[in-house]
Design brief:
By secondary structure, the protein is mostly helical. The chain contains 19 helices and 5 strands. 36% of the residues are buried.
Length: 395
């Protein structure tokens, strides 16, 4: 055959195609042997997984031969040969590892396949074919892994929404923790629930905004948009300004943070208090952002939250009464005279310094300073709630 005839050839002979197909098994076995030699992680794989790789390579060789037989079907055949395979192996082989496997297989193909050619023209066709086929394989693998990642992301988003919904509804601890663990959450980590308005109607944008702020703070986060409400579960301690940074991811309006609890299993308590605070925060227009649900106890109690009523009794009214002496009487009198020290002293027939001492003692017991307008409101509501609870026989 003349050189001009050889150079014009665009297909392989039937004999060469037959030899290629017969050699597919040996090529696949040689490729797997080379992978075992060069890749320690591949040697550690179970035998059944290595066998799956062997079958994949042999299928790839057969697809390559079919494509050589009919080059017009390149995209279809390469997609069928390699696009479906990563969906199976992606469960136990990463994308980086898949690239290593493909590279080794293609290097072996480049070395072995031209040897089957009958002449220089066929060798050129085989060399060019391996390069083009390898490119299609790379695109197919990348597409498959991207699709798998997208599917996993969608599943994780659904699972995350179930976890957050379970926290809000107070689901059983076992199911909640198992789902959260599947998302990589540390069940022993402290948790704080924040609720407020989402910043937009675009859920992916909301997720990105919250996650990026949590990542910059080095915190775990779970979130869900429930209608017009954004619920965020923040992992770790809530000290410093971390709550403030996370609250910037919320939309306009108040943001309420529940108490920080010891683990995710207790997060339903934080969620319950936060949601109660969100319903009642309208009663305190000057509330900071975020505002702790504990700081909304008066508004929550006025809105009919029995948990808030109990906390006011337990945190303020009971400690003042249990302290004995005249602490409760002094605080009550101080509030009644509008916070005027001298008037309170005259009403109680004591020295003003005695009033000062008793008020300091009350602050130590309750964490509320009667001289602060906001704390004075909390104290007044707590004492009223305490009297009502006692009258009903609840205390």
């Amino acid at each position: 055959m003349s050189s001009s005839a050889a150079s014009s050839r665009t297909t392989l002979s039937r004999t060469t195609l037959r030899d290629l197909r017969r050699a597919s098994g040996d090529l696949a076995a040689a490729a797997v042997a080379e992978m075992e030699r060069r890749l320690p992680w591949f040697r550690r794989m179970p035998a059944d997984q290595r066998a799956s790789v062997l079958m994949l390579i042999q299928s790839g060789v057969n697809g390559f031969v079919s494509w050589l037989h009919d080059p017009q079907q390149a995209i279809k055949l390469t997609a069928e040969a390699f696009r479906s395979a990563p969906k199976d192996i992606s469960r136990w082989v990463s994308l980086r590892q898949t690239v290593e496997l493909v590279r080794i297989a293609l290097e072996l193909f480049e070395q072995r396949l031209p040897q089957v050619a009958a002449d220089e023209a066929e060798r050129a066709l085989l060399t060019e074919g391996v390069l083009r086929y390898g490119r299609e394989i790379a695109f197919s693998a990348a597409t498959s892994y991207a699709a798998a990642a997208e599917a996993r992301g969608a599943w994780d988003a659904r699972l995350e929404a179930l976890v957050v919904d379970g926290i809000v509804r107070g689901d059983a601890e076992e199911s909640l923790l198992s789902r959260a663990t599947a998302l990589g959450w540390d069940p022993a980590a402290e948790a704080t629930v924040l609720v407020g308005n989402p910043p937009s109607d675009d859920p992916p944008a909301v997720v990105f905004e919250v996650r990026s702020r949590a990542a910059r703070s080095g915190r775990q986060v779970l979130l869900s948009v429930q209608g017009s409400r954004l619920v965020v579960v923040l992992g770790g301690e809530s000290g410093g300004d971390v709550l403030g940074r996370i609250s910037e991811a919320f939309g306009a309006g108040p943001v309420v943070a529940g108490p920080t609890v010891g683990s995710l299993a207790e997060a339903h308590r934080s969620a319950g208090d936060a949601l109660s605070g969100l319903r009642a925060v309208v009663g305190w227009p000057a509330a900071p952002r975020p505002v702790r649900s504990l700081d909304l106890l008066p508004e929550r109690a006025l809105a009919g939250d029995p948990e808030a009523e109990w906390q006011l009794v337990d945190r303020i009214a009971r400690p003042l009464e249990d302290a004995g002496g005249s602490l409760l009487e002094t605080v009550d009198a101080f509030l009644e005279v509008g916070g005027v020290l001298e008037a309170c002293a005259r009403k109680l027939f004591v020295h003003p310094n005695t009033v000062r001492y008793r008020l300091r003692r009350a602050t130590e017991l309750t964490g509320r300073n009667a001289n602060d307008p906001r704390d004075a409101l909390v104290l007044r509501v707590a004492l009223s709630v305490g009297r009502l609870a006692r009258a009903r026989g609840l205390w």
